[in-house]
Amino acid sequence: MASHGTGTACLTVLVLIAALLTAFCVTGSNATCLVVCVAVITVLASLWLWRLRRRDGGTERRVCVLVLGDIGRSPRMQYHALSLSKHGFNVTFVGFLDNKPHQDVLREENIRIVPIAEVKGVRVGPKLLTYVTKVIIQCLQLLSVLLRVEPQSHLLMQNPPGLPSIAVAWFVCVLRGSRFVIDWHNYGYTIMALSHGQRHPVVRLAKWYEHFFGPLATHNLCVTNAMKDDLQKNWGIRATTLYDRPAAIFRETPLKLQHELFMRLANTYPQFQHRGSEEEEVKVERTIFTVCDLADDSVTLTMERPALLLSSTSWTEDEDFSILLEALKEYEGFIKEGASLPPLVCAITGKGPQKEHYRKLIDSLQLEHVEICTPWLEAEDYPVLLGSADLGVCLHKSSSGLDLPMKVVDMFGCCLPVCAIHFDCLQELVKHEENGLIFRDSQELAEQLKSLLSEFPSSEGRLGLFRRNLRTSRGQRWDDNWDQNVLPLLTAPR
Questions:
Q1: Burial, 351: exposed, middle or buried (Cβ in 10 Å; 0-12, 13-18, 19+)?
Q2: Residues 446 and 334: beta-carbon distance below 8 Å
Q3: 3-state SS of the chain: helix, strand, coil percent to 5?
Q4: What's the pLDDT tens digit per position in 291-328?
Q5: For residue 2, what pLDDT band results from cuts at 50, 70 and 90?
Q6: Per-residue model confidence as pLDDT tens digits over 427-466
Q7: How far is CA 215 from CA 170, 171, 207, 297, in A?
Q8: How far apart are CA 221 and CA 26, in angstroms?
Q9: Nearest-CA neighbor of 307 among 277, 279, 278, 335?
């Protein structure tokens, strides 16, 4: 560690200053005391800054990636770390370690994860006190961590969350002579406004904070052209659009891998279990979707299988899952009225604050032809399930109207058609009637499910057409996109 003695150095400075103040105030004039103390402080501060900014031969190949959130649930930042490592950078990855990151990140020798603990703040007194103490403790925590790592050429951080990480990261970059890069996924104050309202004092403070510190970054990345234009027009920030692109792990899943995943899920979730007779051949292994002949290890899809509907979520205020639940109730009604539609297994993956609320709503539904489960998947299993599904649903509504749902990007990487709820810049990703459908309410979503699944499991209908369109129009993958848009920023001369 280049600066492991930072805390000791600060303490030494304070002790020397206190000693000098005591000596000169006792034995000399106040003027002399002041001049000498200022001189000593200046010299020691200069030496400390020199130590912090001291560079070695490896500094230009070191980058710190910072997310004030769970690394395991920050796929874009994991992709950044992997891309940096691929190009020979040594990456210090700072963030919470609540969920296991992808195995590729854990296996990569050039990536070192520095976990930080999530701060709760003072639990007594008014909420404002809790929030203020949380921010102060987080500032001190981040300063301690970032000043102790080796000197870095760049510090790349995700926003949101950006309070207090933008200010702390900028301050550390000033002290250490690093270049500061913000990757704008959204605006933090707009997310806070979902629960507090636009005029709440904390929301207004957060908006001022982002507007003040955001332009101080050396470089800025963002997720859509709409956000790029907004940052330029309203923030005075010139940003580079780095669209989310699927990593290579997102692809259509071979039948053998589908069966293996369904077998594992069936151990926990009965929705994936085979419902047939117990007196079947012992040489056959079945799930509700697949059958494996153990004699030759061949796997086929069952003809009478249900359709697998998939959605993923962080269970936050910007996704209203009551829309999907109402649509599933209407779909159930279509079947009871005689429509020729397949039964559904709806898997909703993810963790978040509103999960228990929606699980209670799901448990209260009385559905015969639709089954719902809410699994949490390992990072390696999530793309396998996406690549095994028949249709995706996205309920993400951007709080700013300027970001795009990464879950849809991943679904498209697996050639999985999507029904997505409308918001302003969604057309940058979802092309209505080409790679999916856009809906505005539960009734429209229900009609889309009915239309797309009316010929299931045949691949000749609209669902099959959308999948074929996705196969033939695959754009850039993450690696090529990153090499084109981010690598030049990091390797440009100072």
A1: middle
A2: yes
A3: 45, 15, 35
A4: 999 989 999 999 899 999 999 998 888 899 999 999 99
A5: very low
A6: 999 999 999 999 999 999 999 999 999 999 998 899 999 9
A7: 10, 13, 13, 58
A8: 56
A9: 335
Structure tokens at 294: 């153990």
Q: Tell me the C-alpha to C-alpha distance, in Å, between residue 241 and each of 122, 157, 228, 447.
A: 39, 15, 6, 35
| Cβ atoms < 10 Å from Cβ of 222 | 26
Residue 137 burial class via C-beta count within 10 angstroms: exposed 0-12, middle 13-18, buried 19 and up: middle
What is the reported pLDDT for 358?
93
Strands 290-293 and 298-301: antiparallel
Instruction: Order the strands of the 391-394 sheet from edge to edge.
Output: 370-373, 344-349, 307-312, 391-394, 418-421, 436-439
Token pair 């990536």 in the structure block, residue: 111
Cβ atoms of 326 and 370 closer than 8 Å:
no
Report d(CA 321, CA 298) in Å as an integer. Answer: 38
Distance CA 261, CA 333 (A): 31
Q: Phi then psi for 421, rounded to 5 degrees?
A: -75, 145
| CA–CA–CA angle 146, 152, 158 (5° rounding) | 65
Q: In the predicted model, what is the mean pLDDT of residues 44-64?
A: 71
For the cut 80, the answer to whether the pLDDT of residue 5 exceeds it is: no
Centroid of chain to Cα 440: 25
pLDDT computed for residue 52 by the predictor: 60
Kindly list the strands in the beta sheet with 90-96, ordered across the sheet, starting from the edge strand earlier in the chain: 111-115, 90-96, 62-70, 154-159, 179-184, 219-222, 240-241
Confidence (pLDDT) at 3: 41
Quote the percentage of the chain above a pLDDT of 90: 72
CA dihedral for 248, 254, 258, 259, sign (positive or negative)? negative
Sheet strands (E) in 131-188: 154-159, 179-184
Which single residue is written with the structure tokens 């500094």? 59
Q: How far apart are CA 449 and CA 330, in angstroms?
A: 10
**Mean pLDDT, the chain, integer:** 89
